[in-house]
Write a structure and sequence with these properties.
alpha/beta; TIM Barrel; 9 helices; 8 strands; globular
């Protein structure tokens, strides 16, 4: 077994254990491997190991890797902060955008849709911190923002995404995110995704009902030196 395969197996075992403790089926949880700064060849290795969901934080990396690789069944998740002037490039390469956090961005992703494009899966990113400058819509505005997304025919509202603050226990933060997710499901019952949990807190995210985990270096190994 390669080091990559061993790390992937170890994380999957931990996910299965956490799901069992939470009384959940691990099969309902999607493990997204974040390949930020790693070469496209690593994505190919992951695909050979059965990975079908990968995440990128930067539009340039997403576009370059997606263009280089033709791997059956691979889904690309854009999870970084998105600039509106990159909306067309993101839409061309991503299957799902987790970080939709403002009307201008949602409108841009909709406006650049071309005839024949698939509907784009999007999530409302919620700011779980007290810092208004951080990415994400304020919790109190999430439901109204979700309603706006539902008015855009080329976007499919799938749920919510959040990052636990450093100054709060992950369990508490994810419980709040779960509450927001529940309110959005009252607006759109099919918006069942909760994208939450990274290497250090995915166990707490699973306990709170996360459906999509974003895990990077615990699987991929240290990021390459970018010079």
């Amino acid at each position: 077994m390669t080091d990559l395969a061993a790390r992937l197996s170890a994380i999957d075992s931990q996910i299965a254990d956490a799901a069992r403790i939470a009384g959940r089926d691990a099969a309902e949880i999607t493990r997204i491997v974040v390949t930020k700064f790693h070469p496209a060849s690593l994505v190919s290795e992951l695909h050979a190991l059965g990975v079908r969901d990968v995440g990128e934080n930067r539009q340039q990396e997403l576009s370059a890797k997606e263009a280089e690789l033709e791997l059956e069944g691979l889904r690309w998740h854009f999870i970084g902060q998105a600039q509106t002037n990159k909306a067309a490039a993101i839409r061309r390469s991503a299957d799902a955008v987790h970080s939709v956090d403002r009307i201008k961005l949602a409108d841009s992703l909709h406006r650049v849709a071309e005839d024949g494009d698939d509907v784009l899966d999007v999530l409302v990113q919620v700011n779980l911190t007290e810092d208004a400058g951080r990415g994400g819509v304020a919790p109190g505005d999430a439901e109204r923002f979700a309603e706006h997304i539902l008015s855009l025919s080329s976007l499919r509202l799938c749920g919510v995404m959040g990052v636990a603050p450093l100054d709060e226990t992950p369990a508490s933060a994810f419980a709040r995110l779960r509450g927001i997710a529940d309110s959005i499901r009252r607006v759109e019952p099919n918006a069942t995704w909760i994208s939450a949990g990274m290497t250090g807190d995915f166990v707490e995210a699973i306990a709170a009902g996360a459906t999509h985990l974003r895990i990077g270096s615990a699987i991929t190994g240290p990021r390459p030196d970018r010079g």
